[in-house]
Amino acid sequence: MFRKAQGCCRVAASKRLAKCLLRPLQPAQERGSIPPRISPGGGLCPVNNLVSSPTSAPSAGRQGKRVALFATCLVDTMRPTIGFAAAKLLEDAGCIVEVPSQTCCGQPAYNSGDRKTAKALALQMIAEFERFDYVVVPSGSCGGMIIKHYPELFAGDPNLAGRAERLAAKTFELISFLTGVLGITGVSATFDGTVTYHDSCSGLRELGIQSQPRQLLASVQGLRLVEMKDNDVCCGFGGTFAVKYSEISDKIVTEKSNNVEASEAGTLLAGDLGCLLNMAGKLSRQGSKVEVRHIAEVLAGITDTPAIGKAAPAQEVTP
User: What range defines the domain where residue 149 resides?
Assistant: First the structure.
């Protein structure tokens, strides 16, 4: 199945973002919350054309780092607003953001033991992204694949080991890049509500991301963070784990969703879309009113779109 998926992943940023998907962004765009070149009325807007080139040279005092945004397959196909939010956060921090042709990082194949396909996809990733100063990923899971496992995949290969190691060294999960590389300590966003935060397994255990999201959330005006019980415990997704061990996965996510509800937060945040989709699905099936969002959307002030798993409100049809 991964060999069939490889062709799809190679063009993961193809023409999927039709203007019907972008229409809910219009209020945020009018406030200046998203870059004006992302046009809800301008027809198709694929992720890899999101910020294809800078609109102007960096002004004095801006960082001017040439950053490639790796959107990830899930963000591209399921929640492109996360990509928009990531681009906005990076640009606001002074980065020159580009979105090259997207591919799959190879993690599903790698986790399933298909090293051949994983290496083929990793090689595509290296070839496309190695020319940038940094590669930023709005996912600890995909980021961890590149940072931790690419060097392992190509260890001992005289032609590719060095390239894999160099890409890994300049790849960062979004929040850790903002705080650790750029030194960002706060954002100018506002959010009226109480949130709780889920620490994803890959982000926490592979990349050490835990305090950084909370540091930035503390700067959001109007936001109140409450910690749920076992916030650092797995949500039960684990990629193919949720398929192969569905009953165990369901028990884990049930406990997680119960902890979310017990926190009395109105919104659940995390940094990995896979986790968010899994938890949003369970919360929805339980009839929960908790909204689920990626942390980048809140930090960037892009929260006018429906929460993950929620349908957009029906629009009135004028005669």
Answer: 2-181
Number of domains in the chain: 2
Distance CA 141, CA 203 (A): 6
Contacts (Cβ under 8 Å, ≥6 apart) of 192: 222, 223
Cα dihedral 122, 126, 132, 133 sign: positive
CB 260 within 8 A of CB 268: yes
Q: Are residues 65 and 134 in the same domain?
A: yes
Distance between CA 103 and CA 105 in Å, rounded?
6
Query: Do 205 and 77 lie in a common domain?
Result: no
Distance CA 270, CA 152 (A): 27
* Contact partners, residue 75, CB within 8 Å, separation at least 6: 47, 82, 83, 138, 139, 273
Q: Which two tokens stand for residue 53?
A: 């080139």
Q: What is the rounded distance in angstroms from the CA atom of residue 110 to the CA atom of residue 231?
A: 27
Nearest to 128 by CA among 68, 75, 66, 171: 68
Three-class secondary structure of residue 192 per DSSP: strand
Query: Is 0.70 topped by the overall pTM?
Result: yes
pLDDT digits (tens, 9 = 90+) for 210-263: 999 999 999 999 999 999 999 999 999 987 788 888 899 999 999 999 999 999
Are residues 14 and 131 both part of a single domain?
A: yes
- Evaluate whether residue 306 is within a structural domain: no
